[in-house]
Sequence to fold (325 residues):
Amino acid sequence: MRTIAAPFIPWVGGKEKLVPYISQVLPPNAHQLLDPFGGGGALTLGLPTCPSRLDIYNDFNRDLVNLFVCVRDCLLSLLRELDFLPLHSRAEFDDLKALLAHDALPPEEMESWEEKELEIASSFPEEDATELIAILKGKAELRNVRRAAAFYKTSRGSFSGTRSSFGVKRNNIRRFRYQLERASKRLQDVVIENKDAMSLIPERDVPNGIVYCDPPYYEAEQLYEAEFGKRDHVRLFHVLKACKGYVVVSYNDCPYIRNLYKDFFIITLQRDNPMAKKKKSVYRELIITNYDPRQFWDKQLDLFEEPGAKWTMDLVHIPRKVLKQ
Ligand SMILES: C[S@@+](CC[C@H](N)C(=O)[O-])C[C@H]1O[C@@H](n2cnc3c(N)ncnc32)[C@H](O)[C@@H]1O
Fold:
């Protein structure tokens, strides 16, 4: 499968490599794709746009979502702000981190503040009002674009994209620009949200829609700025069990998750590296569905060779009762 666009920042737990496998168990004619734990956006960006399907990307991380909105709506300003100079020093990295540490106003407050400014501007005679409104809108956009650029630069300039410690790397500037441009095109018709996934899913769930969930891995929740506690895994499970649409969940393979999702179908996705002798060279993920994935599964693809490694996909659990027919 050729993907349309790819994640434009490094993101812990990103599923770029797994998109060909995940996408082959998805119902092909769904009217909606909801990606509530969107992160770097591997699935949303990777799938081709379809005019009869509404795509919704969401993440609880406000700065990440702001970057996605800027890539979609004001790419040129963002590119200008990035200036395509890579990070040269730890001092610059620290300045950008400080900018991000200074919390932006919550979106509701920001909106009402901007609304008030616009209201005042509109009370001027028409010609002045038009000019003032354009300036205010430009100011708001610049503020968001600056934050987005800082977030992008600290992600690119840190070890494994974690934005916590400065790491000098070789930057392929041409590739970065190309990725941003492709992603911007792909995102044009994507709705972008910044909500808690467990409230968003019931709001957006529809019978002929897909809910693809890639939550923080069990016992690796602390890797993200957005808080996700142990109890949230159970909350998410209950929300997903009540869904009317097609549910697909990615998780790390562990007994707790296998047991929690025993009412669902479970597929293991395993990557063996025959050249490496260590145990850690086997890497296993789960793909969990509330419907029988075999109806869409292209068996030709369930074994895939990549240089030095082999991927296999196996259905390892069938529930007694199928939740979604
Ligand atoms: C495993 S990552 C998703 C990776 C993504 N699928 C990709 O390919 O890049 C999990 C994401 O969940 C987000 N997250 C954590 N708690 C959340 C919540 N309550 N609601 C929505 N998103 C949340 C994190 O910010 C993180 O981006």
Remarks:
- The CA atoms of residues 144 and 186 lie 21 Å apart.
- The beta strands are 32-35, 54-58, 190-193, 209-213, 246-252, 265-272, 283-289, 303-306, 309-317.
- The chain has eleven helices and nine strands.
